[in-house]
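Shipment paperwork, digital attachment
Item: protein structure file
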Amino acid sequence: MTRIDWRADMTAWRNWRAWVLILGVLAVGQPIRTIPSGAENEDPKSTMPMGMEYIQGESVTVSLEDRPLVTYTHSPLEFGHPHFHPARTPAGHVLTNQAPWDHVWHCGLWFSWKLVNDFNVWEEPALPDGKTEIVPLSIEKVALAENVVSFSCAYQWRLRTGKPLLEGTVDVRIHQPEGDLYWIDLDYSFKGAEGDTVFSRVPYHPTDLVWGGYAGLSYRPIRDFVNPILTSSNSKQGEEPAVMRWEPVRWLDLSGPLDGVREGWGGLCLMDHPSNPRHPVPANFHEPDWWNLRWMQLAFLYGEDYVLPEGESLDLKYRVVVHDGKADVDTFNRIWEAWE
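Attachment content:
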């Protein structure tokens, strides 16, 4: 029998963390994660280190303690648009659906116009015989500093004959999770290639064109979201949300139950900055009878087309909050107000 000198080891046994570790090993047969001194009350996800993988000229993947969190694809654009996919919650649940069979140009989380100078740049860049394409020009300033991953991308919208239609950039900042959520800041800037540039849409009609009015920052969720819940900045904490399509909102959230987890929920919230033209922006989303299509958007062009004068830029700022659990109105209001 091995003899243990309790007096010689008394200092170690007085350390309660050692007891926790030993009891954890005895109880479950494997080590448990120890909490750093002074961090007992912190959420574990907020103390996990962020990582980044950059494939030059192609993509940026952000990780949380070596687990992938979100990927931005700059190039190649197999389905037409630069986009975020997969986008995961801090707990690791995928929320985005890329290139669903019913709308292959839906790219998880992405921004798209409908028509630029009457040329279709929503669907056609994703189609082999489409007349338009989005050409990635550059991805630069890729950095991980102070728990924020940042980078800048440039694109050109053009006809496949080579004629340019639009130039655009996006500055991206992906922040470290705070508890059960994290956010992505997106700063877009657009300039016409020549002359005035007209951004237009197919006008909405309540009976003839119920699918009309779309263009802007969009989210296509996973198929798990059969009966998702929509919540907006007009909702009240503790009350059943009842969002009306096309109502002006500061933010719009789509949350749903998740497969593979007991009573698990996740969601994604789109926020519109008060400096944006036409703020607050109309909320666009699926109608209940649209079979298996679930989708939401901040519909910049719903009310009318937008004319960008020659030589000027259109600047748009958005924040996207990715979260575990259902939408929390008070939390999203606080995040939006701090961003404002």
